[in-house]
Design a protein that fits this description.
With 319 residues, the protein is mainly α. It is built from 13 helices and no strands. Helices cover 75% and strands 0% of the residues.
């Protein structure tokens, strides 16, 4: 029988297969998914339960989580060599999870997504397929949108800001043309923050020959584009009287402007983290349980990374 140390090691080993799916990235999708569900409930004259989502919302939430988690895993499979050079996302480069196991897990999570979506409306399944295609073409050749400006921004914007909102909406009510201007507003905001994140990786991207937004436009150009896109999202949100589309850019722009002026990495990281945090807080007004989910991921991730690798992640100042 394994002792306490062996049991702890086994548990952490099992958790490797959860955290390789990058839940700290997936939670961004959750914000927009529940935002879409809340908007659909309001448009249909109802409201989301403050205590527990409906069966369809839970199934849709699980299916979209599995699709994006698989997308994050595919991204690591595609980038295993560059991640090894950059010493980042080390589950595959260090052999903590083998490439064979990663491919098997990818198949399992995407089959799980299909199974969860099967009982849902055809509109939701259509959005799920679109999200799957965005995830595949984001990382895999020949498209590999993540490596090319402006498609790195466009794909992230559509995946998080449009598809996730549409999926949340479709889990509550039939898809409506109303989702188009709302989805495009969030797409602008996510594209803006994507441009900002490329500033942090610009040196490594250039060294690897990746033509990301910051690598093509330069740090100053990408930073300026962030301000333009976030400003445009705020204006669109104001026109549509949408709190998520309006308040997030308005509250985030001062920090993004500071990062643009100072060109300080810490300021850039703080601005990016603050923007994601404001998105979460505003979206949780209609879905309070979202904050509980986010807290579980945040504190669970910190506990896991501390126990498994001896450092805390995520945290203030970490990209």
């Amino acid at each position: 029988m394994a002792g306490p140390g062996g049991l702890k090691c086994s548990v952490l080993r099992a958790l490797d297969f959860i955290f390789v799916l990058r839940p700290t990235v997936v939670i961004v999708m959750w914000v927009f998914f529940f935002a879409g569900a809340g908007l659909a409930a309001r448009a249909s004259g109802g409201s989301l339960s403050l205590l527990l989502p409906s069966r369809d919302v839970l199934l849709g939430f699980g299916a979209m989580t599995a699709v994006l988690g698989g997308g994050c895993l595919l991204n690591q499979i595609s980038d295993v060599e560059t991640d090894r050079v950059n010493e980042k996302l080390f589950f595959l480069p260090r052999g903590i999870i083998s490439m064979r196991a990663a491919w098997v897990e990818l198949a399992v999570v995407w089959l799980l997504a299909a199974g969860l979506a099967a009982p849902l409306a055809s509109g939701f399944r259509l959005v799920l397929v679109a999200s799957l295609l965005l995830n595949i073409t984001y990382s895999a050749r020949p498209v590999r949108a993540k490596s090319h400006c402006p498609w790195d921004m466009v794909w992230n914007g559509l995946g998080f800001g449009f598809a996730a909102v549409a999926a949340g909406w479709a889990s509550v009510a039939p898809l409506s043309p109303t989702i188009i201007p709302l989805g495009l507003t969030y797409t602008l905001a996510v594209a803006g923050i994507t441009a900002s994140t490329t500033v942090l990786d610009v040196e490594g991207d250039r060294a690897l020959g990746l033509r990301t937004t910051a690598a093509v436009l330069g740090e100053s150009g990408a930073s300026a584009l962030t301000l333009v896109l976030m400003g445009a999202a705020g204006i669109a949100g104001a026109v549509m009287f949408d709190p998520l589309g309006f308040f997030v850019p308005v509250l985030s722009l001062p920090l993004l402007v500071r990062a643009h002026v100072t060109r300080d990495r810490a300021h850039r990281t703080a601005a990016n983290q603050f923007t994601v945090g404001v998105f979460a807080v505003v979206a949780s007004i209609r879905a309070p349980y979202l904050l509980i989910l986010l807290a579980l991921v945040y504190f669970g991730s910190r506990a896991y990374y501390r126990a498994r690798f001896g450092f805390s992640y995520p945290g203030v100042g970490t990209p």
